[in-house]
Amino acid sequence: MNLQERDGQYLWHPYTQHKTAALPIAIKRGEGALLWDEEGKQYIDAIASWWVNPYGHSNKYIADAIYAQLTSLEHVLFGGFTHEPAIVLAERLMELLPDNQKKLFFSDNGSTAVEIAMKVALQYYYNKGEKRTKIIAFENAFHGDTFAAMAASGISFFTEAFKGSLIEVVRIPVPLKGKEEESFEILKELAATNEYAAFIFEPLVQGAAGMVMYEPAALDKLITICKANAIFTIADEVMTGFGKTGKNFACDYLTTQPDMMCLSKALTGGTIPMAITTFTQELFDGFYDDDVNKALFHGHTFTANPTGCAAALASMDLLLQPEMQENIKRINTQHLAFKAKMEIHPRVKTARVQGVIFALEINRDSEEYYGNFRNKLYNFFIENGVIMRPVGNIIYILPPYIIQDELLEKIYEIIEQAIEKVL
Hints:
Layout: H1 3-10, E1 27-31, E2 34-37, E3 42-45, H2 48-51, H3 60-70, H4 84-96, E4 103-107, H5 110-127, E5 134-138, H6 147-152, H7 156-159, E6 169-172, H8 180-191, E7 196-201, E8 205-206, E9 212-213, H9 216-228, E10 232-236, E11 260-263, E12 275-279, H10 281-285, H11 306-320, H12 322-342, E13 348-354, E14 357-362, H13 372-383, E15 386-387, E16 394-397, H14 405-421
Parallel strand pairs: 3-15, 5-6, 5-7, 7-10, 10-11
Antiparallel strand pairs: 1-2, 2-3, 4-12, 8-9, 11-12, 13-14, 14-16
């Protein structure tokens, strides 16, 4: 049996209806922006393997750092213990994060980073004896698949089966250009009730919604409204963090900073699962008490795994290299040129760019998230050796920062062909 057949015996894949889905592609190796399957076919990884791999597959610098850490300390429990990789990672992250971030909590993935932030917001008010049990989020948000993260997500088919089991979340419109005032006014009305503990958002770009983009000034205003009403703000930077938007964090575009930030995906350069939630001193102090019951009773077996910390430190080294920063600018320049070309195409409704993120919407009637047209697009890209995952009728690119110009041009070429051929 080949790998595909062996996979089918025991494995259950994410976001997959196994009765109707094609067999998964068995990848044997990767290098840079390229992957090869078991038949030797080459693919361009145009989405950095779900946005986690900005420095390329099989990156030797990160691999060497992981190996060195494994030969000294692979893991130790973080309850009652600590270690140098976690301490150094915290110190270095604090140099990059907004000045108001003072504490960080480790977990395993983006969903758990969000889960922790929401728990902290709710328990902070519980510890104070105040009743604030609701959360505010954007429409069509996606924050993960654990229960609190699901509750804050607005893409209904992900959460439909669990409606009666979720905490109460009220959604406000995304402050798209020309529609900002609607978001501001609805948030003001909600804030005045004193029922809400936190407002969670994907800063500047809603990833799973189809790379929906909005302006920093609008988010600044929303955060300001929250601060005036003692509502904590949570920036879900799981997708946007570590250079995706053109700056280290999307929050770097803001003048008013959130109270919490959620980090994962590119944190370890696509090597080891790890996440971090960061907090202001005020939030930490809300749990600092003689009463043990006011502590944050949350933890993961692999919290602050030293090997993951070593991978994250190596990834940060790469991100901050002048050459990598130039790569981000280079990709942005090429995206902008492609945007200018595509936004006048008769079959393109809109095209947009933020940092290394490019998205275009094909001019069609409303399409299902995993509908037939989307599947045709996906299959066309795979057949032509490009890994992309369209969202309905929206095609997006989020490539590794090390991608060569010719590979990026190949992606653009295949997108143009898809727009003409896939009906």
